[in-house]
């Protein structure tokens, strides 16, 4: 009887350890439906005052962007190669200013906390010629990772407003 009890407890312990390792996102809730482009649009629509948004250009992101043609590589946008995402978009100022918002949908079972740390540690807030981003935010909701870089002199509070709009999507 003790042998069977030990086997059952061992199986239960193993099962619980698998469940505990199956998700690597932070406790930031559910996954949000839609493409990253649609979700980014929802974030912008959720801003109370969008007048500070610069003229924007949206760039689809993929791991080997810029390879072979000396273009801007993925590290220009998110700071590092090897971030396990399946879909991404960068929204950048087309004219002047330190403004970049990147939204990534991560692969299933990706270590989201590690990805956020890699992005935060490696992204370059000085990537623009005349501006530096003094607000750098990296967070997630479910499998979506958001990177925001803005300059508070050219757009005071814009980074935080975008972040607040993003967080509202979790509700």
What would your notes on this structure say?
With 171 residues, this protein is α+β, with helices and mostly antiparallel strands. The chain has one domain. The chain has five helices and five strands. It has a five-stranded antiparallel β-sheet with strand order 1-2-3-5-4, with helices on both faces. It is globular, with a radius of gyration of 19 Å.
What is the tally of beta strands? 5
Overall geometry: globular
Taking strands numbered 1, 2, ... along the chain, how are they ordered across the largest sheet? 1-2-3-5-4
**What class do helices, strands and sheet pairing give?**
alpha+beta
As a percent range, the share of strand residues is: 15-25%
Q: How many distinct domains?
A: 1
Radius of gyration: 19 Å
Q: What is the chain-wise order of helices and strands? A: HHEHEEHEEH
Estimated helix fraction: 25-40%
Please give the count of helices.
5
Distance between the ends: 49 Å
Write the layout of secondary structure elements.
Blueprint: H1 2-21, H2 36-45, E1 56-61, H3 74-78, E2 85-93, E3 99-106, H4 112-122, E4 135-141, E5 144-150, H5 158-168
Antiparallel strand pairs: 1-2, 2-3, 3-5, 4-5
Keywords:
171 residues, alpha+beta, 5 strands, disordered N terminus
Q: Could you provide a short overview of the structure?
A:
The protein is of the alpha+beta class and 171 residues long. Helix content is 33%, strand content 22%.
């Amino acid at each position: 009887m003790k042998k069977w009890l030990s086997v059952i407890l061992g199986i239960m312990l193993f099962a619980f350890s698998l469940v505990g390792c199956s998700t690597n996102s932070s406790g930031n809730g559910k996954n949000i439906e839609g493409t990253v482009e649609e979700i980014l649009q929802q974030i912008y629509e959720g801003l109370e005052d969008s007048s500070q948004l610069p003229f924007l250009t949206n760039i689809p992101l993929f791991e080997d962007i810029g390879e072979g043609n000396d273009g801007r590589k993925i590290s220009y946008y998110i700071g590092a190669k090897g971030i396990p995402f399946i879909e991404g978009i960068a929204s950048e100022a087309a004219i002047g200013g330190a403004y970049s918002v990147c939204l990534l949908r991560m692969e299933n079972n990706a270590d989201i906390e590690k990805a956020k740390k890699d992005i935060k540690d490696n992204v370059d807030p000085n990537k623009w010629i005349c501006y530096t981003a003094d607000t750098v935010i990296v967070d997630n909701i479910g499998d979506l990772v958001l990177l925001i870089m803005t300059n508070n002199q050219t757009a005071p509070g814009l980074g935080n407003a975008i972040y607040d709009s993003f967080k509202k999507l979790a509700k």
